[in-house]
Amino acid sequence: MAEQSDKRKPQRGKEPPLKRGWTTGACATAALSAAYQALLTGEFPDPVTITLPKGQEPSFPLKQAALNGNRATASIIKDAGDDPDVTHGAEIVVTVELTHDTITFHAGDGVGTVTRPGLALDVGEPAINPGPRAMMQGVIEGLVKKFDGNKKPGAAITISIPGGEKLAAKTLNGRLGIEGGLSVLGTTGIVIPYSCSAWIHSIHRGIDVALAEGHIHLAAATGSTSEAAVKKATGLADQALIDMGDFAGGMLKYLRKHPAKKLTLAGGIGKMSKLAQGAMDLHSSKSRVDMKGLAAILADLGADAGAVKNAEAANTAGEVLDMARAQNLPLGDVIAQRARETALATLSGGTEVDVIIFDRDGNMAGHSG
Fold it and tell me: What is the pLDDT of residue 21?
């Protein structure tokens, strides 16, 4: 249930330092803190400061603040820093109503509801993750202790994100079974730009949901073209499709501990060539296609000397694939077989594997399994 768009890939390599931002959960916690303090003291702190799980103490200016009897509302505009988070600039609105001695969470406008098993929250629960819930509960307990030590912490907390349902269409929430809006996320409270860990987290949650729904055959793709092609080829439901991106290792190692009966790996010739070489991170900053290795495969398949020489000097694996096709040589099948061997070795048994290589037009260019 990532806030990160499913069309975006992490940017890595030697880039200038990028500005970090604040998670939706941190913004909601700050808005809650301001609203709850207003209920206890009659005044909204502005800016409001909170303490994050790792000790950082950011301050947030309030967008709106309203106090009406035993109900208070505060909001904060989310700053995701330099991360292209779909919720950057969104207003995170928290309304708090005092209750006797329980803390409950509710989904307001633009916040989703969990509709499928497999996530950290039960079906029917508002999509407010355990991390933010724990932060908010800690804030309430701390404020009660500070301002009214004899009172038992109690609050009905409603979080809204105006326009969140429209923004959620740009995320993986629908596939994960979160309907009606966005998720309130955040473990540390900090958004790390182009976070690789966030992408891998989404892969793991996608596997959890697919397995909880009883899908025994999963398909993991490196990009949107191969995902559309493998869906057409296998007929699998959206919930069985895993947006692996470059993180083959993160996906395979998680499946080793949480196995499915069958896995189909799908991707272009370039990334599948890297997997065939044993690479677990398929990003261009972490691994390179071995052009001489591809040329050697062409030679073994009987390519003429000119094609072998051109393959060694090629810029992309796609060029080498075109050379192989011109001579009716099954380069794609060989790469698929070697990629499958890498996957099977990483999975260490328990899961059947097949690999399909697609070209840029979504046509099958190689298969094994």
Answer: 86
